[in-house]
Amino acid sequence: MDNSSEIIITFGLSHDLAALVDTLVSSFAIDVMPLTIGTVRNFVKSHPDRKISLVIYNIDAKHPRQARVIKLIRDFVGPLAPFLVLVPPENLAEIKKYLDAGADDFIELPLNENRFSIGFLILLEMGQAIGQASPRLRSADPVVPRHGRQVEQVGWQRVVHYFQEGLNFFTPKSLLGAARTENISDRWQPLRRLGGGGFGTVWLVQEMGGSRLAVAKTPHSPAMNIGVLRSAAILKRLVHHPNVVQLIEVVKDSGRFVLIQEYVQGPTLQELLKSGISSLDKESILLQLLSVVAYAHKHKILHRDIKPENIMITKGGRIKLLDFGIARDLTWQGVDSSTAGTVNFMPPEQFAGKSCLASDVWAIGVIFYIFATNAVPYFQLNDDYPQDVETSLECPLPTTINPKLDAEVERIIMRCLEKDPERRYGTAIELANDVRETLPHFGRGELLPS
């Protein structure tokens, strides 16, 4: 064991999983300590100087009172250490009990290694931020597995690289509770409510003692904490793209994880559409949108709610794509059966709960159609019950509305709006490549109407 003051405590990990944990922390100055329920209390008591940065507990499916075991561990390690549980299939129905007992996040078994690495590093970074500076790295060298284990090239170095670049966003002491109940954690003061929805409420906040403004997305209840952590992981992976709203940090307030994001000043695309947009601005917005969604698709991120209200434009003309609240990271998440989204920007397969990367292409196509015709291709009023929406409506060709529209522009738009996702562009990468190759002058303001 090293002399690091930080430790990760594990319970019941297999040899392979323990080796994977060692791999992920091999460049951190941190120890991994396997314990049992019978030894954890004495260990914590005899090592008061060791800061527990993460707890990982592998659920024992044969033990009937696992929630109580989790509560005991939580009592021993204290309220601050992030707590991850690994849940076998036969225990998935008990997840709520485990979270109520003190777990912060869970991962289903059998283990998906990409999913584990992302969840592990998110919680570890949060744990290291408690009362201390960012992770201390031993070197910038590529990760080398301990125990001689050969890790397949499934993205570990890329994932670790993302989390070790100094892009730390968890506030020191943010889990210690609010210093004043009217503030968010011990750092952000709410100024005014910006909006709300099914996820929770959105507030404009100001850094206490400073002038920096930010946006706080607060879920309705702690039961939604898992979704917040998933969104944080996705935003972290996309942090390098200038058209993604940036995540500043995650804090814990009244038991809820809160996303603190950059505050973007400027109108939404929806607001601009009402006042009119020049041809040049339309083409610039589309190119930027293609860039950011292609970047997300390159990383297997499915947004699922691309629409004008979720696109903001700064004074300098840069777009920011917002709201990854229902996004999915397909490197480790399957596409769930949810029909979440915004009706007028959802393709037929999304209504059926079978979203794919091509579903984002459809939403881009709807925006492209609006830019080309100043009209919507489809319009549905039933936003509350998407299962009742009519999906057999036909979309008029853009040239029936705007006869001057370039034929290649029309072809691209209509391919985006193919009802069969197999006939659509599979990703925004394919769409962006077609626009670049077929319309080399796109972006000069010559192909779309004002």
Features:
Transferase(Phosphotransferase), domain 1; 450 residues; Rossmann fold; 14 strands; Phosphorylase Kinase, domain 1; alpha/beta; 14 helices; 3 domains
Descriptive overview:
- This protein is an alpha/beta fold and 450 residues long.
- It folds into 3 domains: 6-163, Rossmann fold (3-Layer(aba) Sandwich), CATH 3.40.50; 184-262, Phosphorylase Kinase, domain 1; 269-438, Transferase(Phosphotransferase) domain 1 (Transferase(Phosphotransferase), domain 1, Orthogonal Bundle).
- 33% of the residues lie in helices and 17% in strands.
- It is built from 14 helices and 14 strands.
- The protein has a 5-stranded parallel β-sheet, with helices on both faces.
- The radius of gyration is 24 Å and the shape is elongated.
- Residues 131-181 and 384-389 have low confidence and may be disordered.
Considering the protein shown, what is the CATH homologous superfamily of the largest domain? Transferase(Phosphotransferase) domain 1
CATH architecture label name of the largest domain: Orthogonal Bundle
- Tally the structural domains: 3
The helix tally amounts to 14
Strand order in space, largest sheet: 2-1-3-4-5
Task: Describe how the helices and strands are arranged.
Layout: E1 6-11, H1 15-24, E2 31-35, H2 37-46, E3 51-58, H3 66-77, E4 83-87, H4 95-101, E5 105-108, H5 113-129, H6 156-163, E6 188-196, E7 200-207, E8 213-219, H7 225-237, E9 247-253, E10 256-262, H8 269-275, H9 279-298, E11 301-302, E12 311-313, E13 319-321, E14 328-329, H10 348-351, H11 357-373, H12 398-401, H13 407-416, H14 428-438
Parallel strand pairs: 1-2, 1-3, 3-4, 4-5
Antiparallel strand pairs: 6-7, 7-8, 8-10, 9-10, 11-14, 12-13
